[in-house]
């Protein structure tokens, strides 16, 4: 099965996707995924997130994480070069809370929870700054 938007897939991700599709159409039912395919899938990390690889290749996140090297499986590790942006929010009526996820070209995802913003303009500025920081 092809991703919903195959034009957005990198050539390396598309190549591994084709390997999985070929294997799935020719394998006997209930056959384990061969090591060669697992190696192809984990070779995409960290250029692509575990979530993206899992979605495109139709794998379970937990199964993919188990095949990653131990250093990549440690929860809470910040990505190399990841920076935090501190923003001061002004109090006012209609204060909102936002969760922003920004994915860079390499597939890394940065998540930011914002509280105290009264309009979309501030949120848009945060996204712009995040994209500059992760570029």
Question: Can you walk through the features of this model?
Answer:
It is a single chain. By secondary structure, the chain is an alpha+beta fold. The protein has two domains: 6-73; 78-135, no CATH class. The chain is built from six helices and two strands, in the order αααααββα. A hairpin with a 5-residue loop joins strand 1 and strand 2 (109-117). The longest helix has 16 residues, at 11-26. It is elongated and about 55 Å long.
Quick tags:
135 residues; alpha+beta; 2 domains; two-stranded antiparallel ribbon; elongated
Radius of gyration: 19 Å
Strand residues, percent: 5-15%
How many helices? The count is 6
Number of domains: 2
Molecular shape: elongated
Strand and helix order: HHHHHEEH
Percent helix, as a range, is 40-55%
Multimer state:
single chain
Question: Order of strands side by side in the largest beta sheet?
Answer: 1-2
What structural class do you assign from the helix and strand content? alpha+beta
Mean pLDDT level = 75
Q: Major β-sheet, in short? A: 2 strands, antiparallel
Low-confidence stretches: none
Q: Kindly report how far apart the N and C termini lie.
A: 31 Å
The tally of strands reads: 2
